[in-house]
Amino acid sequence: MNGAPRPRSFYVLAAIFALFVLFLYGPMIAIVVLSSQGPDGGLVFPMNGVSLHWFRMLWDDGGSVDISEAFFRSFRLALTVMVLTVVISVLAGLAFRCRFPGAMLLLYVAIASLIVPSIVVSLGIGFEFRLIDNAIKALGTAWEIESIQSGFVTALGTFTSGLGAHLTWTLPFGLLIMFAVFNRFDPFYEEAARDLGASRWQTFVHVTLPIIAPFLIGVAVFGFTLSWDELARSSQVMGSDNTLPMQLAALTTTVTTPEIYALGSVTTGASLLLVAVLLSVAFAIRRSRARG
Questions:
Q1: What is the pTM of this model?
Q2: Is the bond leading into 7 cis (omega within 30 degrees of zero)?
Q3: At what angle do helices 67-95 and 244-254 cross, to 10 degrees?
Q4: Helices 161-183 and 118-143 sit at what angle, rounded to 10 degrees?
Q5: How far is residue 177's CA from residue 109's CA, in Å, rounded to a whole number?
Q6: pLDDT surpassing 70 at residue 64
């Protein structure tokens, strides 16, 4: 049976799958290759030399925009969004284990932002913070608060409106994952721990958390990667500070050198690195459990 020739349909399907993979990852590979051109390189093949010149331009701020600051700003924001997404999703999952009136309505409201166009969400949050700006300025004028009258410009910023906009995108995914996890969670493990004298906190730390830990890694991956490359929801809410995807979008209209490819390679590499680290942690947890 093992030595029987494969049917022709197998090779057809294999070829279709190979073309799909090439279509999916071919542009990324081409960008990485073209970003490694020499100082006289262009945006298309054939390549003109091989070097790390365009990467050095990014980190030395020798390009047309300040890339390094945008990179670390996006990185800090993505890490913050990741942590908040994990924490809020776990707390919400624990809360929804207890049936309460309006739970389903609250669930629909929480995930509604997934079906609303991202640019609409961004415009709404931007408009909301402009109303907050007007209220703060009116308060400063009415009460003659000097610090507001002279120093306040806007509440829009990376870790105010920007953080909220990104959470409207990442939290629904985290909530859906944790709801699915806790719906399948066997409460007898927790009951056994409490019968043995464990407190609620000890039960959560030593029983519940280790069981759901691999799923938390999945939520963390969603939180970081969705925030890291989010553009539409960032477009109207970041104030004067651009994130890395916003800088990349700006470069597409102004830069005619492989600098933009180098930026795309760095962005993709950072995402893949974090995913690899988190998957390594998940694999280590799995091996630890197997040994235990």
A1: 0.81
A2: no
A3: 140
A4: 130
A5: 16
A6: no
